[in-house]
Amino acid sequence: xxxxxTRDVSPSLVDCQLTHVTRSPIDIDRARxxxxxxxxxxxxxGCRIVHAPAAPELPDAVFVEDTAIVLDxxxxxxxxxxxxxxxxxxxxxxxLVGYRTLVFIEEPGTLDGGDVLVMGHRLxxxxxxxxxxxxxxxxSRLLTRLGYEVRPVRVDGCLHLKSAVTAMAPGRVLVNPRWxxxxxxxxxxxxEVAPDEPHAANVLLVEDRVVVPAAHARTRQRLEADxxxxxxxxxxxxxxxxxxxxxxxxxxxx
Length: 254
Ligand code: CIR
What we know:
Layout: E1 2-6, H1 28-44, E2 47-51, E3 68-70, E4 74-77, H2 88-96, E5 101-104, E6 116-119, E7 122-127, H3 133-144, E8 149-154, H4 161-164, E9 165-169, E10 172-175, E11 189-192, E12 204-206, E13 209-213, H5 217-225, E14 229-233, H6 236-239, E15 250-253
Parallel strand pairs: 1-2, 4-5, 7-8, 10-11, 13-14
Antiparallel strand pairs: 1-15, 3-4, 6-7, 9-10, 12-13
The structure holds citrulline (CIR).
């Protein structure tokens, strides 16, 4: 069974962390409706939705991707780079312990799950303001013995590695080459986002379908021309909080 772990939109989302996005008013009811439609899209693709306990006092709690990396063998509980986000991990760990053995990133390491792109047994990890080399070393030590390879990747101009690149099909990535060098993912080949849609590289591959934000119509056309089956969701309010489609779920098999 495929599970999508999600968490409710907090009423405090308006106080979210922002790094590369200018603050603009967020309509919480609309954000909640968009989040519910996102969950419905995942359910229609065969995911069972499991909710981590709501955390209304934690503004960025909806962005569960940053709190853990769930692999077949273990779940790595992160230590988010933004101090305000560190309390988010407890509720996610409490939920994941029912499915996986937990291992932890520890001080001085900081790691956001949005910086980790898993492609088979290779993990690409973005070196960003949220993720430091101490955490990348820890991740490598935790996972090498399980047969994974951890590769650091330079990222420039955006929040997370997965703002700049995600998997759109096995062995193929969608990338904004202004933020990350596509050659870092070789032997994977790549498709570039439409140049006027810099944030469009964040798509969510579920089995053979690709979840794409409605705002990125020209990149959607590129994906379809490339043979992808696209599912569109409107996440405009979550985008104002610097979130995308990968960051609102942790998807894994049981
Ligand atoms: C933050 O700055 O941490 C949140 N406002 C947005 C996090 C988005 N996470 C992600 O893309 N993985």
